Amino acid sequence: MKNIIMTTAAAAILLASCSSSSKVSDSHSDSTTVAKDTSLTAILSANSEAKLSDSIKVNFVVYNHTDSTRQFCKWHTPFEPLMSKYLDVTAADGTEAQYQGPMAKRIMPPPADSYISVKPGDSLKAEINVSKAYQITKPGKYALKYNSAAISGITVKDSLTISIK
Fold first, then answer.
1. What is the pTM of this model?
2. How far is CA 8 from CA 3, 12, 84, 146, 149, in A?
3. By the number of CB atoms within 10 A of the CB, which of 14, 46, 60, 104 ranks highest?
4. How far is residue 24's CA from residue 2's CA, in Å, rounded to a whole number?
């Protein structure tokens, strides 16, 4: 029971420390001000069809539609090497594709180099090879949904559907 309480507390600290809904400004040596908040959005996109034997490549594009520089935590995003399960990949019949990638342990609070800045009106793009991290063994339609907004501070409203042949 004690382990469950400690694990739950550690998970809550991890989620709370990497993103915040309130704005906090940091001064940097280049005299710009960077605000950390959850106003960044992203879109998942890919070809609507892929072959089971090929790489399944998905684009993850983060947009800053505000008039000031924003930051997000790169943990649990494709902006760092594959270190966590940040997508839910679900077949049309409801079965979830098994995640087979690494799971990183993190230090708290996240160090400064865990954050990426996005300039006002700008966007950043990263590519994910879903077939490297998820066990997709049958053809069919799969829904991909980003599940780590609470950690990164990036909101992805829509899921992506890909037909695997």
1. 0.75
2. 8, 6, 18, 22, 18
3. 60
4. 34
